[in-house]
Amino acid sequence: MLLSEIRNKKMVSLRDAGVLGSVGGVYIDRDSYRVKYIFTNENTTVYAPEKIYAHKDILTVLDANGEPRERAAGMLALTIGTAIYGVGGEYTGRVTDVEINSRRKTPVLLTDGKPVKLKHVVASSADAIIINPTGKPLLPPAEKPARKALTGTVITPEIPTETAYSGMSEAPSDYSFLLGRKLKYEVADISRSFVLMAGTLITDRVIANARKAGKIADLVTKSS
Questions:
Q1: From which domain of life does this come (predicted)?
Q2: Cα–Cα distance, 10 to 22 (Å, whole number)
């Protein structure tokens, strides 16, 4: 099934015939690539229907209890029209459709360029999707401690001291292209427990905190 087949259709509860809103997009589990929640265009509630029936003009759902959108934190938020960027900040296109609950081992995002496998999506929001098309780890593997021969055949690993890490950046080098930029717009999560005001200078600490809040994609699209 494609997201375009249900997007913008009214979602109606089979329990009370109430209109829940029009389908805006989906939240997909990062491990199974299955749809876990549907979100609407009208509010911040997400729905996890037990059953879905797609009709020509509406979508009827069974037992779709509304839950706060925070419940979908950590999942892939996908909708049509979202801008796509590489981990280096380069624009690669926009989402034109999304395969949902596909039989493929790894479903894809259809774009105005090349299709993107969902396993290559590293971050997503309503404003942007960040992809790592190479599939390589964002950070290089940790180096093994050096081994130093002391006497004879006895070998003891050197244990890095606390001071050895004192100069390390809190943000991964992959997002270093953001350093020195300023936010053009406010960046905040739904609960507003994380808020960056417009004009904020992006530093290592800002990037680190944005990663924890899942707002790296917003830093890319809302800064210059």
A1: Bacteria
A2: 4
Cα 156 to its chain centre, rounded Å, is 42
Taking the whole predicted model, whether its pTM rises above 0.70 is answered as no
Cα 191 → chain centroid: 17
Asked whether the beta carbons of 48 and 35 are under 8 A apart, the reply is no
DSSP conformation class of 114 = S
Contacts of 131 (CB under 8 A, 6+ apart): 84, 85, 86, 87, 92, 116, 120, 121, 122
DSSP-based three-state secondary structure for 54: strand
What is the CB neighbour count within 10 angstroms for residue 191? 12
Domains and CATH numbers, the chain: 3-76 (2.30.30.240), 82-131 (2.30.30.240), 173-221 (no CATH)
Report d(CA 65, CA 213) in Å as an integer.
26
Alpha carbons 44 and 206: distance in angstroms, whole number: 26
Per-residue confidence (pLDDT) for residue 159, from 0 to 100: 43
d(CA 59, CA 52) in angstroms, rounded, equals: 7
168 pLDDT above the threshold of 80: no
Considering the chain, what percentage of its residues have pLDDT values greater than 90?
A: 21
Mean pLDDT of 42-60: 84
